[in-house]
């Protein structure tokens, strides 16, 4: 085998290695970003559940507003785990929860604003019935059952 063929073969193998390394490096970065996104949402969901069951209404409201911020942050990227529909459902339910809490403390204008935000997301939800009553009943039922279907609410 001549020197030119060996050098050419070496360069070809080197280029293939660089190409494979770049591909797998980018895929690993993408997978790591998705795992981080999942971890953030899961962590915040547990935090919300803890604030709902153990914290005051004010602490729970603050946690819900923080969750909306987190949802907005993740909705701006393109993620196969966090589609527009998931964002819409999570946001609508969070606004409905905030509406329930505002009503509970007598802030009817604030409650109306929150439920209005939830209703604005209805076209994206794909629900057969998307009304203030349906959203409110859904969050009350979901919060009573807890995140894993057990009755863990006080």
Q: Could you explain the architecture of this structure?
A:
By secondary structure, this protein is an all-alpha fold. It has one domain (37-145). The chain has 6 helices and no strands. α1 (3-54) packs antiparallel against α2, α3 runs antiparallel to α4 (108-120) and α3 (84-104) packs across α6 (132-145).
In a few lines, what is going on in this structure?
With 154 residues, the chain is mainly alpha-helical.
Number of strands: 0
Overall helicity: over 70%
Structural class: mainly alpha
Query: In total, how many domains does the architecture comprise?
Result: 1
Properties at a glance:
elongated; 154 residues
Helix and strand topology:
Blueprint: H1 3-54, H2 57-75, H3 84-104, H4 108-120, H5 122-125, H6 132-145
